[in-house]
Amino acid sequence: MPTVRHRAPSGRRGGGASAVVGVLGEILITLGVLLGLYVVWQLWWTDVQADRVQAQTLQELDAPTPDAADVAVQVRRDDPPVMEPPAAGEVFGTLQVPRWDDAVMPIAEGTDKREVLDKAEAGHYPETVMPGDVGNFALAGHRMTYGAIFHRVEELEPDDPLVVQAGDVWYVYRVTDMRAVQPSQVEAVAPVPWEPGVEPTERLLTLTTCHPIGLNSLQQRFIVNARLDYWLPVADGTPPDLVGQTAPPADEEAS
């Protein structure tokens, strides 16, 4: 009986598969590196660029600087002056948040991403009122990338001051409510937040930003509501809340 000899496999098929796997591996590694660079660009470099633009904007705005040696002796709770709406993209004031280590950010008209928000500016919703007016003065800001001016929004607590300077006036609002909502809940910026169609009687402020922090940050919106506590002319000095002091309550002031 003849002997049957088995020929050893040539290895070509296995070698070809190995080559394909190797190429795919290199592609995946390259994509991983590119993705990593993109994340660095998004989370770090955009902040660097936006912070640089913001600093220049604040310098050009020449906004008043809080001075502990020049704290206002009296504050006002009557009807405040209200400035006319500025042109789209115009920077018209600042927002200062003592809870965020006295962070200062420019306020500009409009919520255009490239022209306002990506410059580390708080964007004023044009359909809402100006600071100090009856109704809802609503602002939007980034929470991730491009300066991330509202990054620490969840650290705010009820009664925290949110200080707006617009023109020659300081407006001091106090936080009343915070909540995460769906992006479709546009009633957050209604004249009376959460009550569309209701006529406003109070002077309110709303902050809006993305939520939560991370890759799914567009899933919801985080909303902060506040109510005007007092105002004063810039010429009268620094608001007490900007230097760690507290303005007298309305009843004490009246007495």
From TrEMBL:
Catalytic residue list: 142 (proton donor/acceptor), 210 (acyl-thioester intermediate)
CDD domains: Sortase_E
Key word ATP-binding present: no
Domain of life of the organism encoding this protein: Bacteria
Gene Ontology terms for molecular function: hydrolase activity
Gene3D superfamilies noted in UniProt: Sortase (2.40.260.10)
SUPFAM superfamilies: Sortase (SSF63817)
Pfam families: Sortase
Protein name: Class E sortase
Membrane-spanning parts: 20-44
High-level lineage: Bacteria, Bacillati, Actinomycetota, Actinomycetes, Micrococcales
Keywords: Hydrolase, Membrane, Transmembrane, Transmembrane helix
